[in-house]
Amino acid sequence: MRGLIAPIVALTFIVLAAAAAPSAAPMGNETINYSYDARGRLTNVSHSGSVNNNLQANYTYDKAENRVTVAR
């Protein structure tokens, strides 16, 4: 009987540990697309999916390549 107690305790611990393991459901999915102009400057960021669907930002630059506007 004494030799049987340790395996039962170990098995009980494994079962309880597996039952307590957290499981996370995915919160959603999202795709982000980045667009650049011929000079390599970011011009558009668009989001699609269940998190930030249809969120967009457009960027414009002046002649000195400074970003002057961000439209969302």
What's a concise summary of this model?
The protein has 72 residues and is an alpha+beta fold.
Question: What are the key terms here?
Answer:
1 helix; 4 strands; 36% strand; single chain; alpha+beta; four-stranded antiparallel β-sheet; 72 residues
Q: How would you describe what is shown here?
A:
It is a single chain. With 72 residues, this protein is α+β, with helices and mostly antiparallel strands. It has one domain. The protein is 26% helix and 36% strand. The protein is built from one helix and four strands. The chain has one helix spanning 2-20; strands at residues 30-36, 42-49, 56-61, 67-71. The chain has a four-stranded antiparallel beta sheet with strand order 1-2-3-4, with no helix packed on it. Strand 3 (56-61) and strand 4 form a beta hairpin. The longest helix has 19 residues, at 2-20. It starts with a helix and ends with a strand. The model has no long low-confidence stretch (mean pLDDT 78).
Helix segment tally: 1
- How far the N terminus sits from the C terminus, by CA atoms, comes to 72 Å
Order of helix and strand elements from N to C terminus: HEEEE
Residue windows where pLDDT falls under 50 for at least 5 positions? none
| Shape assignment | elongated
Number of strands: 4
Radius of gyration over alpha carbons? 27 Å
Quaternary form: single chain
Q: Note the beta-strand portion.
A: 35-45%
- Helical percentage: 25-40%
Backbone structural class: alpha+beta
Largest sheet descriptor:
4 strands, antiparallel
Q: How many domains, in number, for the residues?
A: 1
Strand order of the largest sheet: 1-2-3-4
What is the average of the pLDDT values?
Answer: 78
